[in-house]
Design a protein that fits this description.
- It contains 13 helices and 45 strands.
- The chain is of the alpha+beta class and 769 residues long.
- The chain has three domains: 62-514, YVTN repeat-like/Quinoprotein amine dehydrogenase (Methylamine Dehydrogenase, Chain H); 525-643, Immunoglobulin-like (Sandwich), CATH 2.60.40.420; 662-757.
- The strands form eleven sheets. Strands 8, 9, 10, 11, 12, 16 and 17 form a seven-stranded mixed beta sheet that branches. Strands 36, 37, 38, 40 and 43 form a five-stranded mixed beta sheet that branches.
- Helix 11 runs parallel beside helix 13 (727-757) and helix 12 runs antiparallel to helix 13.
- It is globular.
- Bound molecules: [4Cu:2S] cluster and dinuclear copper ion (CUA).
- Dinuclear copper ion (CUA) binds at residues 590, 625, 627-629, 633, 636.
């Protein structure tokens, strides 16, 4: 018994040594010593205490950051600022197998434009799904500015489920912003372009180039955008910028601002002054006010025509139906942000030093009384600025974006040129506090800041540049996200986090306990379509089927082998490998990588994924599991053998490198008996406790039961060979029996430790299984 226990223990607890020494040295130094040695002040310590999260600790908020040009979404915790995940969205993400398995390739293929696969994204604005204006923790949306696309991420598994391409735009920026019940996701164009996909000379800019604002219909139940029920406003060729949806009193309406309402077209090479000169001449640009609720009714009533296969509300129709208005706003504005109660709309003018507060009540009155100061060249009524402005406040040079606090009337504005955050009161129009941040702030985010009830607490400043702030890593620097405590009257800077993935424009943060992510899939699950996979395979049902010119391999993975371990095909055949992870235990993911075929899968517990490729060259292609899943992980391997056409197998069998005798067999059997005793004692512990109250443990026990089932089969095979005197096979199968036992014991010990750590109670002794 002792020998076996030792062997298992060394297998199971072989890692994790060497920590003791450094901890004890650390413990000997006093806080003062450390402060002195590292040059820290009391203020630093206080800041550290507010962000430091001890091992095993959790964050109160999760932030979802745009991954900029990487096309990913970055997830990090607040206040610890620890990065938790990169979610592949518009671009492949190898660790998750995103863009490598057939299922996720199909998602990326939805994002093709004019038949071309786009392998980057310029992500800007993530947005959470909402119910009555509150984040509901179900979905996240994000836009791609360069290729006007929108993606849907399911927060149940943090996977991208859908990409839609805008049929009217050639770029976007004013998305993703959601309406209060996620009825629609807003996406506004940025650079005006012809509505058709044809060539249109710039001389026809005013007539043929257009902006657009799409309201994508979202089905919360299905978790998918419905392009067929979505509609788009045709807009003048002003460069539309950011958007926001009305809330509470302003629900049903949307706001989109613009720059370059001069409709200037540059052309340095034609001797024309550049865009930047011509686009900043007028003192004001236009805020677009759209009535989506009424527009949706028109669509439902069949009164809207389709263009490019999608509903388009023309400017003419929008004006006639009272769906579209313009309000002058300070020139070259950037952020437009509706207050939590929906009564105010704050616009920051990036070439100005003011933030402008508009009153929804005043806007509504003007619309009701048809009080307009005129029309734009496209016939859209213009409501005057003075009839709608509540107040304007000097907040600093180059204000960009606004985020609301939990405290009434309090808002934070990012000040790009002055590199600071201004906290101010938008009801009374006065500045409350200012904090210098490191450099060139873009967006900023407060906790649940876009909802109808922001939490305040923390603010993250998304700084564009990180000059001089971190260890140099070459000409391209990371971005700098700075954590700020906003719980008191004065803002306090807490922490700098370098973010080394693209230029993240915007971040949204949600209370962590609103998210309920799964730890496993239902067995045989296609996570991208959220359905049972047609390729799902159960243990013992692995098979190879040749159909319609494709070799389908129905395989499984479980600690520590891939079934099948040998795949044989003929040169030129198309191979489709479908793998199901049979595990249920948390985090028990297997990978699958194959030499030179660009095959790289991630198979989380329960998941089924496929890799299809052409075996166009005869040869030997090793494959293996890429996740360190168990002690015998390196042995989780196999071979794809691609035989030349018409190859005739020679007689003979695989010669094993090692010969076994009866003594070897007996020794292995003895080990197995001892190991079984260990298993029995662990099982005894588990079943004598209320383990069924712990779903994590139930999953482990189910996996252990599976492994033990396999163990029995291996044992029977070993005994059958031994009976025939074939000790070679008998010893090998007895060894496999032991492998299954080790896995059973591993799972059992993990379950036992979990029960001990979570205060499981002893129950009436039950018969051990
Ligand atoms: S944008 Cu980049 S800093 Cu796309 Cu919201 Cu303002
Ligand atoms: Cu499975 Cu390593």
């Amino acid at each position: 018994m002792k020998a076996a226990t030792k062997r298992i223990c060394s297998v199971l607890t072989g890692v994790g040594l060497g920590l003791g020494l450094s901890t004890s040295v650390w413990a000997q130094a006093s806080l003062e010593d450390v402060m002195k040695e590292r040059g820290l002040t009391q203020k630093d310590l206080l800041a550290a205490a507010k962000t430091y999260t001890p091992t095993g600790g959790r964050d109160e908020y999760l932030a979802f950051s745009s991954g900029g040009q990487s096309g990913h979404v970055i997830v990090y915790g607040i206040p610890s600022m620890r990065i938790l995940k990169y979610i592949g969205v518009f671009t492949p993400e190898p660790w998750q197998g995103y863009g490598f398995d057939d299922e996720s390739k199909a998602i990326l293929a939805q994002g093709k434009i004019n038949g071309k696969q786009i392998t980057y994204g310029d992500t800007h604005h993530p947005a959470f799904s909402e119910t009555e204006g509150e984040y509901n923790g179900k979905y996240l949306f994000i836009n791609d500015k360069a290729n006007p696309r929108l993606a849907v991420i399911d927060l149940h598994d943090f996977e991208t489920k859908q990409i839609v391409v805008n049929p009217f735009m050639k770029s976007d920026h004013g998305g993703a912003f959601v309406t209060p019940n996620t009825e629609y996701v807003m996406e506004a164009s940025q650079y005006a372009a012809p509505v058709s996909h044809d060539y249109v000379p710039l001389e026809e800019f005013n007539d043929k180039y257009r902006g657009a604002l799409t309201y994508w219909k979202f089905d919360m139940k299905e978790g998918r955008i419905k392009p067929e029920d979505s509609f788009t406003f045709e807009l003048p060729p002003y460069s539309q910028d950011l958007s926001d949806a009305g809330k509470k009193v302003s629900a049903g309406w949307g706001f989109t601002n613009s720059f370059c309402s001069e409709r200037y077209v540059g052309g340095i090479e034609r001797g024309r002054p550049p865009f930047e000169a011509g686009c900043s001449q007028k003192d004001t640009d236009f805020l677009h006010v759209t009535n989506w609720k009424k527009a949706a009714e028109l669509v439902a009533a069949g009164k809207v025509h389709k263009v490019n296969g999608s509903y388009q509300i023309t400017i003419e129709q929008a004006v006639k139906e009272g769906l579209l208005y313009l309000i002058p706003e300070p020139k070259s504005p950037h952020g437009v942000d509706v207050s939590p109660d929906g009564k105010h709309i704050i616009i920051a003018g990036k070439l100005d030093s003011h933030a402008w507060v508009y009153s929804w009540e005043k806007i509504q009155n003007a619309i009701k009384n048809k009080k307009f100061e005129g029309k734009d060249p496209y016939g859209i009524p213009i409501i005057s600025m003075k009839d709608t402005l509540h107040t304007q406040v000097q907040v600093g040079l180059g204000p960009l974006h606004n985020q609301y606090d939990s405290k009434k009337c309090v808002v934070y504005t990012s000040i790009y040129v002055d590199s600071m955050v201004t906290k101010w009161d938008y009801c009374q129009g006065k500045v409350l506090d200012q904090l210098h941040i490191h450099y060139n702030i873009g967006h900023l985010v407060s906790m649940e800041g876009d909802s109808v009830s922001p939490d305040g607490k923390y603010l993250v400043s998304l700084n564009k540049l990180a000059i001089d702030r971190f260890n140099p890593v070459g000409p391209l620097h990371p971005q700098n996200h700075q954590l700020i405590d906003i719980s008191g009257d004065k803002m306090q800077l807490l922490y700098d986090m370098p973010l080394p993935l693209g230029e993240p424009h915007y971040v949204v943060a949600i209370k962590a306990d609103k998210l309920k992510p799964a730890v496993r899939y239902k067995s045989g699950w296609d996570s991208r379509s959220d359905k049972k996979s047609p390729w799902k395979t159960r243990a013992g049902r692995e098979k190879v089927v040749r159909k319609d010119g494709v070799v389908h391999v129905y395989g499984t993975v479980i600690r520590s082998h891939i079934t099948p371990e040998i795949i044989e095909v003929e040169e030129g055949e198309t191979v489709s490998i479908h793998l199901t992870n049979l595990e249920r235990a948390e985090d028990e993911t297997h990978g699958f990588a194959m030499y030179s075929q660009n095959v790289n899968l991630s198979i989380e517990p329960g998941k089924t994924v496929s890799a299809t490729f052409k075996a166009d060259k005869a040869g030997v292609y090793p494959y293996y599991c890429t996740e360190f899943c168990s002690a015998l992980h390196l042995e989780m391997q196999g071979y794809l053998l691609v035989k030349p056409k018409g190859y005739v197998a020679k007689a003979g069998k695989i010669e094993e490198g090692q010969k076994y005798t009866k003594a070897d067999y007996d020794k292995q059997v003895k080990t197995n008996i001892d190991t079984q005793a260990v298993i029995n004692s662990v099982v005894g512990f588990i079943t004598s406790h209320n383990y069924k109250d712990f779903p994590e443990v139930v999953a482990l026990v189910e996996d252990a039961t599976d492994q033990l089932g396999f163990a029995d089969e291996a044992k029977k095979k070993a005994e059958a060979y031994a009976a025939k005197g074939d000790y070679q096979n008998a010893t090998l199968w007895a060894g496999q029996h032991w492998q299954y036992q080790v896995k059973t014991a591993d799972l059992g010990l993990r379950a036992k430790t979990f029960l001990e750590e979570h205060g499981a109670k002893k129950v009436e002794p039950k018969k051990a299984k």
